[in-house]
């Protein structure tokens, strides 16, 4: 609701400013150009999202997701010690992690919800559940598919030229997130 109020306020401010300064034509052109650009961007992102969501589905059905869960198991057991003996939760977490590694926030969200549901214990957020939220928020991305899709739709000549910056910043954000979560666990177990 707050975002709706904010957007309405910005639109109203633009219209009032345009009326006061005699530039309503520019305001109208801006509104129409922005709407057109938004539709073009959404259509461009649909293709990228469908592609990588399909890849995630193929991984799930072919057993690659289970194989990835086995590969990630040593790390996940250390990050989620309360669920180290829960294969369903670990597989859901690894599927969520795989989607995040591919930069697929749209595919990672339902997988993260599935992982959170498998980890839920009553109405209190456990340390493991908080760690899942931290890892989802600060996810490491090897292939930032969504960002590359946005860049491609916006006309970038090389949409993946941001890879080194993405790798560095995502590694730093995950490291800081994990350290902060562990610190909070010690302060308030």
Concise synopsis of the structure shown:
By secondary structure, the chain is an all-alpha fold. Helices cover 79% and strands 0% of the residues.
Write a structural description.
- The protein has 189 residues and is an all-alpha fold.
- The protein has one domain.
- It is built from eight helices and no strands.
Instruction: List SSEs in N-to-C order.
Output: HHHHHHHH
Helix content: over 70%
Structural class, please?
mainly alpha
User: Sheet with the most strands?
Assistant: none
Shape: globular
Strand runs, count: 0
| Span of the ends, CA to CA | 34 Å
Count the helices. How many?
A: 8
> What portion of residues belong to β-strands?
under 5%
Rounded mean pLDDT is: 84
- Unreliable stretches: none
User: Which radius of gyration do the C-alpha atoms yield?
Assistant: 21 Å
Domain module tally = 1
Please name the defining characteristics of this protein.
189 residues, mainly alpha, 8 helices, 79% helix, globular
Spell out the blueprint of helices and strands.
Elements: H1 2-21, H2 24-62, H3 64-79, H4 87-101, H5 105-119, H6 127-137, H7 145-153, H8 163-187
């Amino acid at each position: 609701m707050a975002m709706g109020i904010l957007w309405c306020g910005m639109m109203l401010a633009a219209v009032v400013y345009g009326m006061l300064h005699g530039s309503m034509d520019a305001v109208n052109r801006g509104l129409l150009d922005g709407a057109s650009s938004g539709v073009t961007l959404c259509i461009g992102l649909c293709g990228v999202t469908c592609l990588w969501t399909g890849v995630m589905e193929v991984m799930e059905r072919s057993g690659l997701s289970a194989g990835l869960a086995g590969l990630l198991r040593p790390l996940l057991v250390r990050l989620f010690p309360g669920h180290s003996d829960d294969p369903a939760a670990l597989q859901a977490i690894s599927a969520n992690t795989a989607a995040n590694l591919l930069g697929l926030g749209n595919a990672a969200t339902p997988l993260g919800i599935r992982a959170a549901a498998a980890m839920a214990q009553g109405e209190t957020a456990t340390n493991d559940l908080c760690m899942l939220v931290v890892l989802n928020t600060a996810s490491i991305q090897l292939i930032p598919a969504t960002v590359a899709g946005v860049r491609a739709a916006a006309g970038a000549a090389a949409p993946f030229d941001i890879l080194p910056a993405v790798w560095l910043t995502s590694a730093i954000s995950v490291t800081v997130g994990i350290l902060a979560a562990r610190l909070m666990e010690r302060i308030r177990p």
